[in-house]
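Appendix B, example 12.
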Amino acid sequence: MSCEKPKAISVRIDPALAALIPNDTRYLADIKLDKLKDSLVYEKHLKDKLASRFDEFARNTGLDPRKDLWEILICSDGKRNVMMGRGKFAIADLEPRLEREGAKRFRYKSYNFFGDEERAGAFINVSTALVGSTDLLKEIVDRNNNPSIPPSLENLIAAVPPGTQIFAVFNGLPMEIPDVKDPNWANLARVARSVNSGWIGMNLSRGMNTTIVANCKAPDMAQGLQGAARGLLGFARLSTPSDQPDVLKAIDSVDIRVEQSTVKLSANLSEDVVDGLMTGEFMRMFRGVR
């Protein structure tokens, strides 16, 4: 009998959603709502705060995210996007409700679409729903569930640790960085443009564990990105008042390392630090922002 430990697998996308990912997807984000709702952070800090919003959403749509949704997947090619939901959909009730709310129904092949030629939604079956660019939804239907995760994204997804509840992968920058005259921002923009691909993962099971990985075009560019990130952290620490110890602990928890052309930033916050951030001055400051 072998004594070797089983090899840890990467994070997993629901196969029914993975089979619908468009071939030209460059940016992908996944939220595992069922796992997130089981986390201590959600139970202690988010459950009550979000209750009224979830109640309103349920009244307006007939869909309660707390009970009816367990995974959301967002895909984009940089111009078009689609959001996919995996859950429990009472189509016989939801489709008439959409029409009553003013959504126009039109037929594409064997599916009912709701919307217009720009954006629409559709129920693929009683457990899978899509919302996004209409032409992209039609392409997904035309492919007839042919698995198609782009290899470049598949390799990035494979690096995300199992148990991660929220993650995103990207092949190319997900946003265009404008040219600026300020020399400090111009240098940061130049460093950011050196990133080819990467991933972001967050686990809220106990505390808050966050990882950001950026694959740069060359080792010297990775060193430049690391320096810029450390500079921003240093500035943040100097700007944080001493009466916000949890914010200081969060900043101090950040570790930034470089291996060849890859920069890895990780921050592991304990439950106590997360509790302090969610209930202290840090959150009160953001509540005042509209």
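Residues 15-143 form one domain. The first strand starts at residue 27 and ends at 31.
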